[in-house]
Design brief:
Blueprint: H1 2-10, H2 12-50, E1 56-62, E2 65-66, H3 76-85, E3 90-98, E4 106-112, E5 128-131, H4 133-139, E6 145-148, E7 151-158, E8 163-164, E9 167-173, H5 174-180, E10 189-192, H6 199-202, E11 207-210, H7 212-217, H8 220-254, H9 256-264, H10 269-301, H11 312-332, H12 335-338, H13 342-349
Parallel strand pairs: 4-9, 5-7
Antiparallel strand pairs: 1-2, 1-10, 1-11, 3-4, 3-10, 5-9, 6-7, 8-9
Helix pairs in contact: 1-10, 2-8, 2-10, 2-11, 8-11, 9-13, 10-11
């Protein structure tokens, strides 16, 4: 431990360089995770709210599986068939429309039948709409009515920060939704109680049963977006492990003679390895802590202007992953330390 701290003080430039590299990689990883979470929130937060109580969902399907939400439209007969199997099922409509505010602001109308809430989404009173925070940002907070599809509808309340496919959400009842989206069929999907329908009950009926994750996965734009950003994150994590491992491998070769002298003076291999790991941990702690902190401060500073989420999942999780991968890379590079020979090193010094 003493030698690790002394080496850090002596070779300030070398360790400042690797600490800076780790810091920048940490900013990129935490920033990318925060952006991924923010984009996911603006893509599927309404779908997650619908499935928050563990409900299953019925979607129209063909021989290739369930339709994606952009083209899903249940017929009246299909809705009736599902209700016959589960009388508590609730039709849900989802459609992208424009507000009559002079700017053609795009919103997503999410409708649930008046039978009751679906997940955390509760239907408004008949003839009213509930607006999300994003709609308030577009038309102004505190408005008492909004125009949609040529009709003026009273604003009955707010539903929080709900988004669908990067457009803010208005929640309506199903009758209003059918007028706003006449090509959407009788409903887009139906929420059914968990276990109320079996796969056998929908097989061969042009329907498919999915869980809440399957409903989120039925939005094709989200799948493509999330896959791309996740792949970039994994690549950055791999680069972090390689960079840290390469640095400590070079560092280990450079100080091999010093390690051999320590062994000649009586230091055990385990003590020298422990000293090296502590040194790597100090560098990683400073670099990762600073990088994640910068990313979190950036996320808080741009909140509302950029879809960015600051949470444990976008700060603590990447910090832990980077620390584990960094230490793994450092551990792999310890071979010069473990194999340093006191006799050869001391002989070479003469």
């Amino acid at each position: 431990m003493f030698f690790a701290l002394r080496d850090l003080r002596t070779a300030r430039g070398r360790f400042a360089l690797i600490t800076g590299v780790v810091l920048m990689l940490s900013v990129l990883v935490a920033g990318l995770l925060g952006l991924t979470a923010g984009l996911a929130n603006q893509s599927v937060s309404a779908l997650r709210a619908l499935g928050s109580d563990g409900s299953s969902f019925v979607l129209p399907a063909d021989d290739r599986g369930a339709f994606d939400l952009d083209r899903a439209a249940l017929t009246e007969d299909q809705v009736a068939a599902v209700l016959a199997e589960d009388p508590s099922a609730v039709p849900v409509g989802i459609a992208r429309i424009n507000l009559d505010d002079g700017t053609e602001t795009g919103v997503s109308a999410v409708a649930v039948g008046l039978a009751g809430p679906v997940g955390s989404v509760t239907p408004p009173a008949g003839g009213e709409v509930l607006v999300s925070t994003g709609v308030d940002d577009e038309v102004g907070a505190g408005v008492s009515e909004i125009g949609i599809g040529g009709d003026t509808l009273a604003v009955g309340g707010h539903v929080g920060d709900l988004w669908h496919s990067h457009t803010p959400v208005v929640v309506t009842d199903l009758d209003i939704w059918k007028d706003l989206a006449p090509r959407g069929g009788a409903a887009t999907t139906m929420a059914v109680s968990e276990g109320a329908l079996s796969d056998a009950a929908v097989d061969g009926s042009g329907l498919a049963l999915v869980n809440s994750d399957g409903l989120v996965g039925a939005l094709p734009s989200h799948k493509a977006e999330n896959t791309s950003l996740s792949t970039m994150t994994y690549m950055l994590l791999a680069v972090t492990a390689l960079v840290v491992g390469a640095f400590f491998a070079v560092w280990g070769m450079q100080r091999r003679r010093d390690v051999a002298i320590l062994k000649a003076l009586g230091a055990s291999t385990s003590a020298v390895v422990r000293d090296s790991v502590v040194q790597a941990a100090i560098v990683l702690a400073v670099g990762i802590g600073g990088g994640v902190g910068i990313a979190a401060l950036f996320g808080l500073a741009v909140a509302g202007a950029v879809p960015f989420v600051v949470s444990a999942g976008t700060t603590l999780v990447p910090a832990a992953l980077l620390a584990v991968l960094g230490l793994a890379g450092a551990a792999v590079s310890l071979r010069p330390v473990v194999t340093a020979d006191p006799n050869s090193a001391l002989g070479a010094a003469r």
